Amino acid sequence: MEAAALAIGVSAGLVAPGAAGMAGAAFGWLLLALAALDWRAFWLPDRLTGLLAAIGILGAMADVPPPMADRLVGGALGFGLLWAIAAGYRRWRGREGMGGGDPKLFGAIGLWLGWRMLPAVLLVAALIGLGVVVARRLAGRPMAADDALPFGTLLAMAAYPAWLMMIGALA
Questions:
Q1: Total number of domains constituting the chain
Q2: CA 106 – CA 115 distance, rounded (Å)
Q3: How far apart (Å, rounded) are the C-alpha atoms in residues 166 and 138?
Q4: Average pLDDT of the segment spanning 60-86
Q5: Judging by beta carbons within 10 Å of its beta carbon (0-12, 13-18, 19+), is residue 92 exposed, middle or buried?
Q6: pTM (predicted TM-score)
Q7: Is the model's pLDDT at 170 over the cut of 90?
Q8: Where does the pLDDT of residue 146 fall: very low under 50, low under 70, confident under 90, or very high at 90 and above?
Q9: What's the average model confidence in pLDDT over 135-140?
Q10: Domain of 14, in residue numbers
Q11: Which of 37, 63, 78, 163 satisfies CB 3.0 to 4.6 Å to 110 for a cystine?
């Protein structure tokens, strides 16, 4: 955890020195905490997710890219998309398939990255999840249809590199 936190801080400072880098480090550190909690306990606390969202809005107010309009659309789209998928799965299968924290986290990520980055984050998170399934299968521990993966962890793992690439491309 400490090494990951150090890597997050250093990478944010290298890609975006100053206020944007400090904001990016906070984004990464909050994602790291949320990813660890989701991985260990399938828990994405509303307080941390809400803090992530609030700091995302503050970042736009401090003129850290992307612009506020993109962030607001990203927040609504991120939450709404995963909420709709979860509701559809629940209706189709008659059981929960996604926790309530995952849509909130994706909405908070949208408030940081804007709507344009959300498809890439979702795709990369899904690919990481497929990689976990393949690795388990190769290790002789295949997953059953009702086994759970902490999707919030996968979203967090995809979101921070997306922020680095987005900010790096603007520099």
A1: 1
A2: 11
A3: 34
A4: 96
A5: exposed
A6: 0.96
A7: no
A8: confident
A9: 95
A10: 2-170
A11: 78
